Amino acid sequence: MPTGARRQRVCILGSTGSVGVNTLDVIARHPDHFEVYALTAHSRVDELFDQCVRWRPRYAALGDARSANALRERLKAHGVRTEVLDGAAALADLAAHPYVDAVMAAIVGAAGLAPCLAAARAGKRLLLANKEALVVGGAFFMNAVRDGGAMLLPIDSEHSAIFQCLPEDRSVWPQRIDHILLTASGGPFRERDPATLAAITPDEACAHPNFVMGRKISVDSATMMNKALEVIEARCAGTDPRRDPPAADHPFDGRVPRQLGACATRHARHARADRVWALVPAAHRVGSEPARLWRARHLELRSSRA
Predict the structure, then answer these.
(1) Which of 87, 142, 168, 192 gives a 20 to 30 Å CA spacing to 127?
(2) What is the pLDDT of residues 237-250, one digit of tens each?
């Protein structure tokens, strides 16, 4: 960081989830570049308390007043001066706070749309891990990004990898991009006889062969609904300027476009790599190495339209 330059102030919406935890891990590796300004969670008081003790943010927010009061009392007892807020309006206020430079939007579901809109309208550097903001908000959300002068950076692994492969000048995308291919792991039923799918159980759907995830995202992955949402996300974000992106099955899902991307990197924990790219300038990335596609033991792409 240049001498005299201040650290970027970061607001993490959904700091106790996996994306938020990985974001804090990245920030911990670059303490000279970032300051944790605000942390939010829905109801995980214990986890947010631990994060506030560790990071001493200026603000913290929870979804309801009862949880916020519990956190406030615990922080006060430990001498932590973080101001605790509550409710949906607090999330939007923090996302648009004039002292915040970057917003990591990691709230699951449509509940993340309002604070994402607030950040977009305030012209923030918006790191979008919440695909529902695009799926639900669509053109309305993208217009807010444009009108507010925000910088939208996708964090979802496939879209992050795609974005890194695209020319920086968006005006040339229609001329230089023929199509974009989204990959999918196929989930636990990739090799299953379609005739047997009517008998599957929720536990079977949650038994992902490659990743340990929450039950909702696991079911979305198993049914390929998650990929449908990503197709909509790519279309709304403009990363596919001509047509709806086709999808293909591959057992390693988002690692494929990341390995194929000219700017892509592999990280000791690949789920953290996209947060590194979005937050940290290339010259300062720690723990990343260039992709080595030839190290892959096996690559197989299978069209989902077959």
Answers:
(1) 87
(2) 665 544 555 454 44
Q: Which domain holds residue 40?
A: 1-155
> Which residues pair with residue 38 across a beta bridge?
11, 59
Q: For residue 123, tell me if it sits in a domain.
A: yes
Tokens for 138? 């669509």
Residue 74: strand, helix, or coil? helix
Q: Is residue 61 part of a domain?
A: yes
- Per the domain annotation, does 28 fall within a domain? yes
Residue 38 φ then ψ, to 5°? -150, 140
Two structure tokens written together for 254? 């988002």
Residue 53 lies in a domain: yes
- CA 98 to CA 93: how far, in whole Å? 9
Which residue do the tokens 């650290």 mark? 7
Q: Quick one: tokens of 272?
A: 């953290």
pTM of the model: 0.76
Cα(298)–Cα(136) distance, integer angstroms: 37
Reported as a single tens digit per residue, the pLDDT across 105-154 is 999 888 899 999 999 999 999 999 887 788 888 889 999 999 999 998 88
From CA 114, how far away is CA 133, in angstroms rounded?
A: 8
N-term to C-term CA, the chain: 50
Give how many domains the chain has, as a whole number: 1
Give 57-73 as a 3 state SS string.
Answer: CCEEEECCHHHHHHHHH
* Residue 77's CATH number: 3.40.50.720
**Cα atoms in the Cβ-side hemisphere of radius 13 Å centred on 115:** 37
Helix (H) or strand (E) holding 23: helix 18-29
State the Cα–Cα distance between residues 120 and 156, nearest whole angstrom.
18
Paired residues of 85 in beta bridges? 61
Interatomic CA distance for residues 134 and 232, integer angstroms:
8
